[in-house]
């Protein structure tokens, strides 16, 4: 075997600077819809073909609520648009849907609150700028909904791109293990909140983190479970939560539940050995179908109630369908045959720390079709920012925080030195991303209106208020 000489930092930096020739930084400013751009509503309809038909109107209803809500659900639309954009040729593991609402806080295995990306349904390798453009465009969409003037919007979006660039440049100077271990914990969040927004904001932050610590399986048990014949069972709340017993005839539901041992064993095999021992201390008690998110509505998502030492010792798992990434037609198919594994492997790679119960399965559904799923805890201190309610200063600070967090995720799996060299020390790329984001936010408003028009014309059915 011949050892391969690793590229030196100088070589990697040269690669990053050379990439400016193929994709000048200023070229990232451009967005003009091509004449043959696919109909955005048609793209959504194509996605709906593989989803639960009765739930698709809920998805359209949620997406129609506002341009920001539409943006959240339109990852497939933007993926199609990004495919034709300038490409630096420097790849990373992409989140694939890195908008503002897909960042948030959750518990680490050490029971500390950390801040990171928290949605990886579309993860796939690809050019780093695709994630940054989706994040920056989401900031522009939010800023427009706040009614901010163009100059202020541009400053906020440029700050998000600057947060990414400055963090990436700092990470490029750090040792490999230091990059891998880097994360934003509660203490760092509190420091940033106080520095940027003062004592009052810090007090609000501390109240929010205190609430987050109570959002766990015990809280889910109190909120979602009722006693049936003396046993804990998931309470029905149709169409958002429908227990298995309400989906199938009694005997068929009983047969399905009896087969859960085999299903859980398959999931168990994807966990590290120590987590298997922990999982073995819980027994399956009940399951229900649950509607989740905005863009995910219509995909199959189940919640599983597991019980430990007694009926007051719950573990709630979420088993969420993993379909082919919306990036796949443009970035290439995943190297993993199981789409659930694609999500899990991408999440483990990009997150500084991940859910201890993160795993995957392939199983046959109620309709007899085989599908892939990934599994995680339903709630584990999970908290998300209310982007649409943010004050401008908070939106600006949050955008910078998310930009830096995205850079850390990319640095874990990509070449931070090459990306940092490409970005440079000046604001050329910041300005280009700000221009692109403003133009794309205008496109998103037109696409949102196209969805509203399709609903009004009867082309598609939407269910609002759900």
Describe this structure in words.
There is one protein chain. The mean pLDDT is 93. It is globular and about 65 Å long. The chain is α+β, with helices and mostly antiparallel strands and 466 residues long. The chain has 2 domains: 9-212 and 386-457, no CATH class; 217-377, no CATH class. The protein is built from 19 helices and 13 strands.
Mean pLDDT: 93
**Major sheet: arrangement of strands:** 8-9-10-11-13-12
- Beta-strand percent range: 5-15%
Q: How many separate domains make up the residues?
A: 2
Helix/strand/pairing class, anyone? alpha+beta
Helical run tally: 19
Attribute tags:
466 residues, alpha+beta, 2 domains, 6-stranded antiparallel sheet, 3-stranded antiparallel sheet, 13 strands
Task: Give a nutshell description of this structure.
The protein is α+β, with helices and mostly antiparallel strands.
SSE diagram, text form:
Elements: H1 9-22, H2 40-48, H3 56-63, H4 67-73, H5 75-82, E1 91-94, E2 103-107, E3 113-117, E4 124-127, H6 128-145, H7 150-172, H8 176-181, E5 184-185, H9 186-212, H10 217-224, E6 225-228, E7 231-234, E8 241-243, H11 244-247, H12 250-258, H13 260-268, H14 273-279, E9 283-290, E10 301-307, E11 314-321, H15 328-331, H16 339-350, E12 359-364, E13 370-377, H17 392-413, H18 416-423, H19 428-457
Antiparallel strand pairs: 1-4, 2-3, 3-5, 6-7, 8-9, 9-10, 10-11, 11-13, 12-13
């Amino acid at each position: 075997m011949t050892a391969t000489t690793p590229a030196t930092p100088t070589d990697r930096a040269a690669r990053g600077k050379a990439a400016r020739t193929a994709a000048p930084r200023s070229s990232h400013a451009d967005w003009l819809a091509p004449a043959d751009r696919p109909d955005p509503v048609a793209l959504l309809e194509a996605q709906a073909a593989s989803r639960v038909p009765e739930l698709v109107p809920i998805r359209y209803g949620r997406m129609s609520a506002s341009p920001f809500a539409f943006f959240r659900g339109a990852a497939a639309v933007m993926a199609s648009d990004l495919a034709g954009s300038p490409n630096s040729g420097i790849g990373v593991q992409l989140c694939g849907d890195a908008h503002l609402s897909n960042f948030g806080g959750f518990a680490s295995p050490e029971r500390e609150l950390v801040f990171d990306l928290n949605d990886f349904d579309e993860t796939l390798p690809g050019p780093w700028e695709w994630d940054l453009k989706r994040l920056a465009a989401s900031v522009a969409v939010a800023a427009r909904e706040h009614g901010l003037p163009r100059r202020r919007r541009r400053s906020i979006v440029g700050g998000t791109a600057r947060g990414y660039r400055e963090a990436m440049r700092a990470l490029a100077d750090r040792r490999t293990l230091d990059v891998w271990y880097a994360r934003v914990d509660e203490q760092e969040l509190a420091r940033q909140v106080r520095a940027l927004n003062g004592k009052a904001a810090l007090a609000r932050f501390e109240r929010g983190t205190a609430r987050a610590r109570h959002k766990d399986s015990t809280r889910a048990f109190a909120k979602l479970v009722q006693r049936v014949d003396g046993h804990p069972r998931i309470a029905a709340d149709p169409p958002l939560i429908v227990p298995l017993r309400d989906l199938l005839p009694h005997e068929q539901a009983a047969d399905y539940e009896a087969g859960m041992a085999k299903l859980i064993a398959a999931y168990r095999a994807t966990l590290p050995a120590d987590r298997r021992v922990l999982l073995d201390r819980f027994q399956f008690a009940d399951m229900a179908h649950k509607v989740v998110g905005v863009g995910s509505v219509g995909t199959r998502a189940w919640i599983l109630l597991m019980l430990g030492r007694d009926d007051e010792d719950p573990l709630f798992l979420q088993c969420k369908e993993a379909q082919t990434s919306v990036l796949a037609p443009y970035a290439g198919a995943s190297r993993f045959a199981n789409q659930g594994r694609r999500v899990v492997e991408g999440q483990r790679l990009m997150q500084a720390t991940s859910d201890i119960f993160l795993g995957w399965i392939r199983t046959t559904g109620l309709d007899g079709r085989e599908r892939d799923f990934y599994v995680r805890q339903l709630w584990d201190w999970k908290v998300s920012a209310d982007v649409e309610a943010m004050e401008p200063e908070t939106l600006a600070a949050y955008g910078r925080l998310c930009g830096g967090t995205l850079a850390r995720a990319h640095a874990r799996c990509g070449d931070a030195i090459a990306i940092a060299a490409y970005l440079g020390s000046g604001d050329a790329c910041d300005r280009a991303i700000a221009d692109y984001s403003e133009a794309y936010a205008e496109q998103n408003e037109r696409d949102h209106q196209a969805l509203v028009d399709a609903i009004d014309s009867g082309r598609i059915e939407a269910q609002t208020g759900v």
